[in-house]
């Protein structure tokens, strides 16, 4: 298995304090075992901590140190696949429902962030989504019509308006409202701290074997120093398990990101919007609370692509140049450069829900461009499923066993 990330990560450097959890060294029983201590695991644990179910979380690393530590913290309801494209692919009702689920997930993330211990830098931001070339203007016009028709708050900018606001010129853009940014590392740690106060058991540095069923029909999971007996298991393993990606039709790729030095003046970056483009693979950028710029892109379609120091330096320099194409007056350089695995699905939708074959096994796998948003809507959906209260129409859209 290739490394989930390489290079120098930025977010772990921002931790206000060290948050640690023990290794499992005893036998435990729980209603729900969550395997994976990244963003999906943290959000599922937080959601379930408000119920009467007993919950345990295990991670083979420390929590938040898998692919989630390389997350760039953009929270957008718009997907890599536009609404009008989803409408053509899965039909209007499902497509609009899915987009509304994503928007609601951003709203829910804001509510949760406001209850957490520590500062997670959750800030609502608009997104500027621009046409990379003239040929993509028609796509944005179609998307503007689809979003407007279905009640999403969006503005259409022509080239002059973009230049007036931002100083750079692009053929056209949409400004969507309802998105946000966050410090993903602090968010994960704070979610687990909060969940622990409501009885969730969290174990780091604890690898698990494949679950077996005992004579009572419960799952028994062996670890090095104890076994876990559970009624249900939720796999929140992100991009760790290639076998799951292969099984459900996902693929694992590699992307690059940087965090710049702190910039004294970001006044020209109106609304501190999240900025991205129509080209695929796309370039994107955002700012941080302390005035850095996070930028990413240059995706490669192989997770196990070579990642030498030379290559990281080259990709970092290229991302700095992309920022400067938009804001040439900024005095910036890459202080942190990293590469990371990310997962995509064939249809652009995440894998959330019941195992198609084994009762009691669930998945919250945020494959696609909006892993954190997907993880939040997944946490809510799985909590409802475990209580027999979920919406079957919504669940069908992201069902891991969908055709």
TrEMBL record:
InterPro entries: FAD-dep_OxRdtase, FAD/NAD-bd_sf. One of its GO terms (cellular component) is cytoplasm. Residues 32-385 form the FAD dependent oxidoreductase domain. This is FAD dependent oxidoreductase domain-containing protein. It comes from Jeotgalibacillus alimentarius.
């Amino acid at each position: 298995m290739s490394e989930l990330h390489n290079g120098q990560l930025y977010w772990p450097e921002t931790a206000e304090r060290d948050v640690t959890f023990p290794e499992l060294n005893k036998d435990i029983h729980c209603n729900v075992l969550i395997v994976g201590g990244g963003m999906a695991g943290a959000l599922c644990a937080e959601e379930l901590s408000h119920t009467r179910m007993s919950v345990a979380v295990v991670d083979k690393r420390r929590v938040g140190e898998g692919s989630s530590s390389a997350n760039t913290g953009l929270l957008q309801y718009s997907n890599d696949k536009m609404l009008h494209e989803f409408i053509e692919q899965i039909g209007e009702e499902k497509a609009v429902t899915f987009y509304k689920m994503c928007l609601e997930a951003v709203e829910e993330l804001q509510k949760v962030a406001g209850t957490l211990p520590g500062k997670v830098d959750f800030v609502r931001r608009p997104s500027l989504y621009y046409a990379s070339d003239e040929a993509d203007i028609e796509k944005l016009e179609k998307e503007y019509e689809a979003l407007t028709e279905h009640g999403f708050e969006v503005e259409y900018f022509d080239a002059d308006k973009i230049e007036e606001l931002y100083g750079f010129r692009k053929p056209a853009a949409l400004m969507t409202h309802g998105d946000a940014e966050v410090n993903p590392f602090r968010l994960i740690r704070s979610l687990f701290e909060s969940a622990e106060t409501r009885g969730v058991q969290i174990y780091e540095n604890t690898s698990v074997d494949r679950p077996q069923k005992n004579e009572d029909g419960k799952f028994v999971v062996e670890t090095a120093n104890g076994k876990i007996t559970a009624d249900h298991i939720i796999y929140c393993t992100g991009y760790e398990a290639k076998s799951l990606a292969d099984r459900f039709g996902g693929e694992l790729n590699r992307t690059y990101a940087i965090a710049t030095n702190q910039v004294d003046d970001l006044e020209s970056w109106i609304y501190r919007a999240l900025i991205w483009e129509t080209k695929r693979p796309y370039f994107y950028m955002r700012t941080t609370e302390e005035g850095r710029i996070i930028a990413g892109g240059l995706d490669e379609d192989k997770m196990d692509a070579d990642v030498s120091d030379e290559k990281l330096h080259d990709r970092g320099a290229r991302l700095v140049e992309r920022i400067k194409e938009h804001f040439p007056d900024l005095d910036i350089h890459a202080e942190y450069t990293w590469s990371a695995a990310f997962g995509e699905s064939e249809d652009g939708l995440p894998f959330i829900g019941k195992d198609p074959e084994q009762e009691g096994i669930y998945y919250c796998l945020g494959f696609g461009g909006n892993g954190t948003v997907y993880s939040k809507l997944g946490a809510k959906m799985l909590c409802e499923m475990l209580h027999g209260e979920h919406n079957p129409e919504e669940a069908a859209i992201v069902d891991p066993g969908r055709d």
